[in-house]
Amino acid sequence: MTEVKRLLYEGKAKQVFETQHTDEVIIHFKDTATAFNGKKSEDLMDKGIINNAISNILFHRLEKQGIKTHLVKILNDREVIAQKIDIIPLEVVVRNIVAGSLAKRTGLKEGENIDGGILEFYYKDDDLGDPLLNKDHIELLTLATKSEVAVLEGLAHQINQYLIDLFKSIGLILVDFKLEFGRYKDQIILGDEISPDTCRLWDSSTKRIMDKDRFRKDLGDVTTSYREILDRLKQLEA
Q1: Side-chain-side CA neighbours of residue 62 (13 Å)
Q2: CA 174 vs CA 56, 128, 209, 211: distances in Å
Q3: What does the alpha-carbon distance between residue 197 and residue 201 come to, in Å, rounded to a whole number?
Q4: Residue 3: helix, strand or coil by DSSP?
Q5: What is the pTM (predicted TM-score) of this model?
């Protein structure tokens, strides 16, 4: 039995608790939805349950592809046991189609395909607004070594290609997504979550938005769309 101890960290969508095992934590998925660096916030019934289930399915599938993740065990609908990792303070964003901030920064038309995808790094710092960084910035700030950045790039592209194909098989387009990684012993492993909170996903036939942009843009039916993604993934598991 895993004993829950004190709260280590609380973010916008999750809480992290220590356990009696020093190298493991419990991650609790909240129902809170946020946007615009927390300026917009609302509790959406069962969002945490749905995201936990989606992320667990995707992490299990990535493990089978040889991608090491922090997931140790599913505790319940809202919680998992995860390896305690030293988070690298970088958000690794992979973009396959122009959307969101990329369209605003470049003037490219939203929906335009990006051949081969592009990868971006953002500094995980709420006070600075999670700014976009290049590799020189990462080295200047000593956030990761050159060899670690190369590992992050390789893992991100590998995960991207697998997820593109997986989502395509259930009628979804992977527009872009965010990954977070951490150091565990002598490895860099995948942490955080992969869910509609961290991915842009459009329906292949209708181009209907299925992700957190429904919350950002006040489109409604946020958890209904999330649950539809989960239901499609579950069909693959059957």
Answers
A1: 27
A2: 18, 28, 11, 10
A3: 10
A4: coil
A5: 0.96
Q: Which residue has the tokens 């599938």?
A: 61
50-108 pLDDT, tens digit per residue, is: 999 999 999 999 999 999 999 999 999 999 999 999 999 999 999 999 999 999 999 99
Q: What is the pLDDT of residue 96?
A: 98
Confirm if 137 and 44 have CB atoms less than 8 A apart: no
> Taking the chain (238 residues) in consecutive chunks of 10 residues, what is each chunk's mean pLDDT?
83 95 96 89 96 98 98 97 97 98 96 96 94 98 98 98 98 98 97 98 98 97 98 90
Enter the DSSP assignment of 208: -
Q: Give the pLDDT score at 237.
A: 78
Phi then psi for 66, rounded to 5 degrees? 90, 10
Residue bearing tokens 């995860």 = 82
**What are the angstrom distances between the C-alpha of 159 and each of 43, 67, 130, 143, 152?**
30, 8, 22, 22, 10
What single-letter amino acid sits at 182? Answer: G
Closest CA to 232 of 166, 154, 184: 166
- How many helices and strands in the chain, by DSSP H and E? 6, 15
CB 59 within 8 A of CB 68: no
Rounded to whole angstroms, how far apart are CA atoms 31 and 43? 5
Strands (E), 11-75: 14-19, 24-29, 32-35, 40-43, 71-74
d(CA 27, CA 34): 18
The C-alpha atoms of residue 129 and residue 50 are separated, in whole angstroms, by 27
